[in-house]
Amino acid sequence: MAGMSKGRSILILYTTKYRLGGRQFPVVAQTLAAEKRASGFDGEIVTRAAESKRDVLEAIAEIRAAGKTISEFIFVGHSGMYGPMFGTTAFPEQFSPYEWEQLDIPFAENATAAFYCCRSARWFAPFFARTFNVPTYGFFWYTTFSRSKEKYVSAGDSADGPLYTIGCMGRKSHGYLAAAKKRLGFMPAEEMKRFEPRPPDGDTSYDHVAELYDAAFQDIRVRQDEWKWLNEHLPTGNIDILDIGCGNGALLYALRDRIATGIGVDESAGIIERAKLKNTANEHVSFQKIDGPVLPFPDNSFDVVTSLMSFRYLDWDPLLAEIKRVTRPGGKFLVVDMVTVPVAAREYPRLLGDKLRTMRNQKSNARFDAALKRLVSHPDWKKMVEYNPIRSEHEMKWYLESRFPGQKMEVLNMAWHSRIVAFDSGPVENGVEVKLTYP
Ligand SMILES: C[S@@+](CC[C@H](N)C(=O)[O-])C[C@H]1O[C@@H](n2cnc3c(N)ncnc32)[C@H](O)[C@@H]1O
Known about the structure:
By secondary structure, this protein is an alpha/beta fold. It has two domains: 8-195, 3-Layer(aba) Sandwich (Rossmann fold), CATH 3.40.50; 206-424, Rossmann fold (3-Layer(aba) Sandwich). 33% of the residues lie in helices and 24% in strands. The chain has helices at residues 25-38, 53-65, 97-102, 124-132, 171-183, 210-216, 224-233, 250-254, 269-278, 316-326, 348-363, 366-377, 379-387, 393-403; strands spanning 8-14, 44-49, 69-76, 78-80, 83-85, 107-116, 136-138, 143-146, 164-167, 193-195, 239-244, 259-266, 285-289, 302-308, 327-340, 391-392, 410-414, 418-424. The strands form four sheets. Strands 11, 12, 13, 14, 15, 16, 17 and 18 form an eight-stranded mixed sheet that branches. Residues 205-206, 217, 245-247, 250-251, 266-268, 271, 290, 308-310, 313-314 line the site of S-adenosylmethionine.
């Protein structure tokens, strides 16, 4: 084994800023480094704090400049299911999927990657494995610090080693019973899930579900809460509007008589065809396919930019820079989307009211109800959702409210594990700076 690892390195990145628990992450990184060394790895082991995207890039660049390759890429810290977050006390940064795809990491042959952070096995680890062609490990559940890596053993506030980040069920994911099991010392650690760098099996865009989607959402007003909120927040007057992730064009169709122009953009060619068909009679409404977070329009083109049930799929930072560029001073960005979060006990009365209203709406529209059931039970829909999961409420709330300080995300409708939220950016010129720190 000795000498085998020459020229190879293990890169262990960790955060030190996450709420109050930040000082334990470096200890976990040191524990992992000691275990790697003990297992016989004789190359360089780099442990390094990464509080920003720039820190990650610098760490990779230094390894490259030294002529080394990375045989294990490890991150210990905080994440949403779309991947690691950096500098998380005030203004967390995340590489968007597009930004990850642009990174050139000098992986060694037979390299692996591991993300010791919350829910990384849901979307991010499979994505990372496909993107960088390396087997990648992640946790399905939320993570916690533990003295043991086999089961949860509380480390309290201590930052003495050895210390591990383990995935396990807990109060947030499984309620008070799981919390009790943890405290009593019976909660096993989750085994990290391994993902191979296989491309998705078939098409995971909306192309295959375009027809079923169009059948269900022919009339956008079936989304009653969303439509009501949009009406309250759309400016009156003849506006120019850009609808991102426009789907089958039902929103611009419904707005056709009150806008000067409408442009819908979407990454799915199949669904753009549906949008065009629906709007053939509306010459002031057009649609085009986009690839990646680039809006092919001049600066200051629109009064309003909307994203209805699509923000979760988009590359937030790069696209927000584009949205800001194409929005006229004083214009606004309106987001309505679905997020995931378990309902809290204090929210039960609201949940009940929302559930009854939603059921009444669906029952009063049998055609919509049947078409919706056909859509969500279809295998192509299930596959699409697996590769494009919805995001957690705190993640979207944190993101939008940090990018547009002073504005608050609202909840329009609650279900047991998901809810519809809405966000009005307010006038875009009001000191709103999109914080883009990469590249
Ligand atoms: C749930 S549908 C919403 C469609 C429409 N806005 C509505 O409310 O009915 C999500 C849409 O986002 C589109 N989409 C997904 N990823 C995208 C991306 N990266 N860029 C643009 N559109 C995207 C999908 O193709 C799909 O049409």
